[in-house]
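Handout, page 2. Input:
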Amino acid sequence: MGTMPSANAVTVLVEGCIVDGATPATLRHGIVVAPLFPYVDGFAERVERDEENGVVTFERAGRRFRLKLAQSGNGAEPVVPLAAVARALGATVRYDAATRTLQIEVEPEPLATMSPYAALPPPAGPLPTFTPTPTPAPSATAGGIPAPRRTPILIEAPSPQPGSKR
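Output:
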């Protein structure tokens, strides 16, 4: 997707993944600069560009960072200093000069916990105690000798065996 790398091209890694754009990130006067998109999208949650004032606002995890863009006379996409923007948004940035690699590691956002349903303090005073009412134990409804069985028990007479006398 990218073009042929120039002599000043820098590889950008965000969370260990290479970011490849149509215009590569480059090293200018000791600062790694790159176009806004797709490089800044890897670590900023929101990017707002104010064309009228030439200002870009970056947001991530409640942090905001505003940057005045330099005017480019040729109509090209403006470039931003990646390391400065990433650090302003709370990322850790490392540059390896030997491999010409800029590594940006973004801290994970903290997990939000649920707020309680009723944020009011408990009422003052003793809490009501639930005491169940005792129920009487079951008692036998019939007593005495058990009633006789009402269904007959059938008993079959054994059939005579062959060879037996009877």
